[in-house]
Design goal:
Layout: H1 2-42, H2 44-47, H3 53-65, H4 67-88, E1 93-96, E2 99-105, E3 108-110, E4 114-116, E5 119-134, H5 139-205, H6 211-246, E6 266-267, H7 280-301, E7 306-317, E8 329-338, H8 346-412, H9 418-452, E9 467-468
Antiparallel strand pairs: 1-5, 2-5, 3-4, 5-7, 6-9, 7-8
Helix pairs in contact: 4-5, 5-6, 5-7, 5-9, 7-8, 8-9
Length: about 475
């Protein structure tokens, strides 16, 4: 007998261990599946087209550490638990309610001859109480469907957070690249202007220029210094923003990127209108419309009668000695129909409320379609315009380069002064700054276009001929 008992206990423990291991494995699989979905939202395939390993490395740290992304993930977990609660409401409810009473009665006299003496009575009750609502009208099922739509909305909100956060980070990253390159050029301009101011001062000293010319060059020097300080301020702000988004205490500073190459990103000539179906706000509006439609069904069916099956099974006795005897068994079973005869118009008001919410959701859905199309079209127009401006800036830079070369030749031949050569060099550097600004603006426009298309890889959007930014 002892061997049988021991064997039973061991088998039970082994089965329990296997069950726990299986549960842990399933939990790990679900966690890995969610992380895989989040990695897809990160869309590293698109960011790799920028040919910047440093950017991809930062985005990986962003995925691991960013607080906004973690908050979005936790909101999904919260909503999943609400769905589980709703599913639980569809199942029977079973409770064990224990009740132990001891009642002492006082001596009382009823009538002339009837006397109830003092007494003591125990009452011990251990029933299992069960109840289940017959979901004839599908109210509880629809509540679960509504909760699942809420979960779908939160998932799309997480998708939107990933697109917004990664796009914002990349925009700040490339603006930092622009600042580093412009600061480098601004240093050269500052040196040239200092030399130009000194030469002008000498000209003025010997009476070869007016005071107005000297003052103009001195003011230019101040302007260039101010712009240099402004660029350094902007760089510091961008660096702080990037470090805050990365949320990594090990990153002390973002390295200077003046030597990095500016990537060349291609944009499509046209984008099909169906692209808006990939946008999270479109999916949110669609899910919200479906959810409010389900809520209207629930409100309508709340007007119908409800039926609840209830039952009890357990033990009820007036003493411990008789608790486990057959005569102490307690059992009950019944069905309760319930309908509100008068509720002050509460349910009708709730039905009208949900109908208005459904109409509102329809308007929100239609508005989302229009604003999404507007956003995509506007970002495409901005990208194309910036592309054209970049081409013009490059042509102007080419002309300034020719002018600078001619100025140097004239200076070497003695046909012009050093001042003319310095001024031509300044004009060349200013045009180079404009080219860099348009190149970075083109990248930012491409990122905004990526964002407006719902995080779609621009190279995979159907198009006739790609256009260089």
């Amino acid at each position: 007998m002892k061997k049988i008992l021991l064997t039973t206990i061991i088998c039970t423990l082994v089965l329990a261990g296997n069950f726990l291991n299986t549960a842990d494995a399933k939990k790990a699989d679900k966690t890995a599946e969610k992380e895989s979905a989040a990695i897809q939202y990160l869309n590293l395939e698109w960011w790799e087209t920028f040919n910047d390993p440093k950017l991809c490395s930062y985005l990986q740290k962003l995925f691991e550490n960013n607080h906004d992304l973690k908050i979005a993930g936790l909101r999904i977990k919260e909503e999943e638990q609400l769905v589980k609660q709703s599913i639980a409401n569809e199942l029977p409810n079973i409770q064990l309610v224990g009740n132990i009473e001891r009642m002492r009665g006082a001596r009382e006299e009823f009538g002339k001859d009837l006397i109830i003496p003092k007494y003591t009575q125990n009452n011990i009750m251990f029933p299992l109480s069960a109840s289940y609502e017959l979901d004839i009208w599908g109210i509880n099922r629809n509540k679960t469907k509504s909760a699942k739509k809420d979960l779908d909305i939160v998932k799309e909100e997480e998708h939107a957070t990933y697109i917004s956060t990664t796009s914002s980070f990349a925009t700040m990253y490339f603006n930092l690249l622009k600042c580093d390159k412009l600061i480098q050029i601004q240093k050269e301009l500052l040196n040239l202007q200092e030399n130009l101011t000194k030469l002008t001062e000498k000209k003025y000293k010997y009476g070869k220029c007016s005071i107005d010319e000297l003052l103009a060059e001195q003011k230019n020097l101040k302007y260039i210094k101010e712009e240099f300080d402004t660029l350094n301020k902007e760089r510091a702000i961008l660096e702080n923003g990037l470090k805050t988004m990365l949320a990594d205490g090990n990153i002390q500073e973002i390295q200077n990127m003046a030597g990095f190459e500016i990537p060349n990103i291609k944009i499509p000539n046209s984008i099909p209108s169906e692209i808006i179906e990939n946008r999270p706000d479109y999916a949110i509006a669609e899910n919200y419309l479906e959810k409010t439609g389900i809520d209207v069904k629930i409100a309508k069916r709340n007007l119908l009668p409800r039926f609840i099956i209830f039952g009890q099974f357990g033990l009820n006795a007036y003493g411990l000695s008789s608790l486990f005897k057959s005569e102490s068994i307690l059992a009950a079973l019944g069905i309760t129909p319930a309908i509100d005869i008068f509720s002050g118009g509460r349910k009708l008001a709730y039905l009208k409320f949900n109908k208005y919410k459904y109409e509102e959701a329809g308007e929100y859905y239609r508005k989302t379609i229009l604003t999404s199309l507007e956003d995509v079209n506007n970002t495409l127009i901005i990208s194309k315009t910036n592309s054209q401006n970049l081409e013009d800036a490059k042509e102007r830079h080419h002309l300034e380069n020719i002018n600078f070369q001619n100025a140097n030749k004239k200076f070497e031949a003695g046909a012009s002064t050093k001042l003319d050569s310095i001024k031509a060099n300044k004009a060349l550097l200013e045009s180079e700054k404009e080219v860099i600004s348009y190149e970075i603006n083109g990248i930012v426009s491409a990122i905004n276009l990526y964002k407006s298309t719902g995080g779609q890889n621009l190279y995979k959007i159907p198009t006739e001929t790609p256009e260089n930014i």
